[in-house]
Amino acid sequence: MPGWGPGDQRRQLRREARPAPDPAARSPRRGVVWTIVILETVVTTLDEQGEPHFAAMGVVWGEETIIIRPYTNTRTFRHLHKHGEAVVNVTDDVLLFAKSALTHERLECEPALRVHGVVLRGACHWREVQVREIAVPPAAASASRADVITRVVGAGTLRPFVGLCRAKHAVVEASILASRLRFLPFPEILAEIGRLEALVEKTGGPREREALLLIRSHVERRAGNAGGRR
User: pTM for the whole thing?
Assistant: First the structure.
């Protein structure tokens, strides 16, 4: 990427050696039995100009294979379809998760090690992936999900995962609700966010409170723009 040379920020990443998985390994669609675990992550991809794009997204997690399920009308899907590479970031900083879900803010990042992409600087750990297969439903509508089956080719760790608390879970749930404004009534979403705010006030810190404020502001702004139709 422009401006990154041999002595650049790559050295800030704590590298974790990882052999590439067997490229002949079968996907879950071909008969391999998996225990499905959907992990909430921040998926980073690059656009045609090499600029990073951040998307909060649940993925089907595996040590050798990760399935990313973007909607077919999103930038994440277009980037994966065109470039075939991404980084799947795991973080306990839920403010970064909320910003990735609801804003176009460019977050701090570092160049990836094994793919043409970026690692979220606030990640705890990450997986670098290459696309093996893209499955799109027949006659897909604009809001259909694709199954982008990827092979893990690299991994690393930046810092320990601090731990879990109810406030962090509440922010993740509120972010997901706020990303579904096309499908759910505004009053229902605002009522649920109000319930989640109580958990954040009780068990969260400044980052969690800032994230909830961002989420509520986003929903109220969208509700105002919709003129109270729902």
Answer: 0.82
